Known about the structure:
The chain has helices at residues 13-29, 37-50, 97-111, 126-134; strands at residues 7-9, 53-58, 64-72, 79-88, 114-119.
Amino acid sequence: MTSASGTRAVQDPAEFIEAATLLIDFNREYDYPVPETDWLATHLDTLVKSGDTSVLTFGAPAIGVAVLRFRIGTLSADLEAYLAEFYVQPGLRGKGYGTIFLDAVIEHARGKGATYMDLNTSEDDEAARHVYEKRGFDCHEGQGNGPKALYYELELD
């Protein structure tokens, strides 16, 4: 299904391959290890079928991909959305595509019933931070009233 903005929820095998290819490109851009395309496409399909994940692409052919993970809040029964992945091909950044795509991703989350969205990005990714902040995302606890929020991670292998 494609919206007026060119965003579609990925549902068929060819779309999952397209989404997987973009995610692999994204991770290679940062020199992260990547799985095989077919494995990732199958894994994305499994995540979507689980009901707690949406994979969205932007453009035809796709120039961007987003992965949303949904969860019930800890202190409320509200649905929250975590923007796990958000990518627009490097040569097409700075042309407004990221903003259009992010708007569609936010509307998709709202359409699923989410009342809150969070994400993380690196401090040096100024282009991504600009797009997120333009749409009201804030990196301070309490939406600007508190200290800077920090993201921590730990490998559990």
